[in-house]
């Protein structure tokens, strides 16, 4: 491409048989992924969290702007502040902000405004999107920000599962308290708050079923 610095692509190709085996193995592995609200306080190394986040940062992004920041939090005081602020918003959500339909849909999850896992989980990963950058005092727009950060979060959750850990995509709303507590710059907006760790002993999850192939997949051949 004219004007672009290009390098050869170095990928890996598999035989049809190995490709099928790998895709089936990966599907079976990912079918075991669950969102969890019952965490152990068992430590997880900083190096593992670093690798998980850097895997997420391999996601594609609009114009390769990589419009994300991942804040990894293990500090006890900060986790306490985040829990207090999150529960304040969640209490209001469960006591007036959420519609009756929304509350009814949440019943199978067994959730409420109490978010003890925000202090129990050894790590919280706060994901921020960056709608723009400041370059030499000039505001430079990023592109497809929500899509890009969403893709990165998908890889993040996959990397967490691959490491043998569990996570929860927690979305207190509003969650601009994260920007204040973590002292993020003005071009960052809170996107997701993800507790990460080991499951608590005897942890349970709702008995839910994922949609079948016929409900999510359409082939046009």
Task: Describe what this molecule looks like in 3D.
The protein has 221 residues and is of the alpha+beta class. The protein has one domain: 3-Layer(aba) Sandwich (NADH Oxidase). Helix content is 39%, strand content 14%. The chain has helices at 16-31, 46-56, 76-97, 100-106, 117-120, 145-162, 177-181, 213-216, and strands at 68-73, 123-129, 132-135, 138-141, 166-167, 189-197.
Order of helices and strands: HHEHHHEEEHEHEH
- N- to C-terminal distance: 32 Å
- Poorly predicted residue ranges: none
What is the tally of beta strands? Answer: 6
Given the helix and strand composition, which structural class is it?
Answer: alpha+beta
CATH-defined superfamily: NADH Oxidase
Give the strand order, joined by hyphens, for the main sheet.
1-2-6-5
Rg for CA atoms: 20 Å
Average pLDDT level: 93
Query: Helix count, per DSSP?
Result: 8
Shape: globular
Residues in β-strands, percent: 5-15%
CATH topology: NADH Oxidase
CATH domain class: Alpha Beta
What's the number of structural domains? Answer: 1
Largest sheet: 4 strands, antiparallel
Helix content: 25-40%
CATH architecture verdict? 3-Layer(aba) Sandwich
């Amino acid at each position: 491409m004219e004007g672009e610095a290009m390098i050869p692509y170095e990928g890996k190709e598999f035989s049809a048989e190995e490709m099928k085996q790998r895709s089936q193995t990966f599907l079976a592995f990912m079918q075991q992924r669950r969102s969890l609200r019952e965490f152990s306080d068992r430590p997880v190394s900083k190096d593992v969290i670093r690798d998980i986040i850097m895997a997420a940062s391999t996601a594609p992004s609009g114009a390769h702007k990589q419009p994300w920041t991942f804040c990894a939090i293990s500090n006890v005081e900060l986790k306490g502040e985040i829990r207090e602020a999150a529960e304040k918003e969640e209490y209001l959500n469960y006591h007036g902000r959420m519609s009756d339909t929304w509350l009814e849909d949440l019943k199978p999850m067994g959730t409420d405004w109490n978010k003890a896992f925000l202090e129990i989980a050894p790590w919280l990963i706060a994901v921020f999107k960056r709608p723009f950058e400041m370059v030499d005092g000039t505001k430079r727009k990023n592109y497809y920000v929500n899509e890009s950060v969403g893709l990165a979060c998908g890889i993040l959750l996959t990397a967490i599962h691959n490491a043998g850990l569990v996570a929860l995509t927690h979305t207190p709303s509003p969650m601009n308290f994260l920007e204040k507590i973590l002292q993020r710059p003005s071009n960052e907006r809170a996107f997701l708050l993800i507790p990460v760790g080991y499951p608590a002993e005897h942890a349970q999850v709702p008995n839910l079923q994922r949609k079948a192939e016929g409900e999510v997949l359409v082939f046009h051949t």
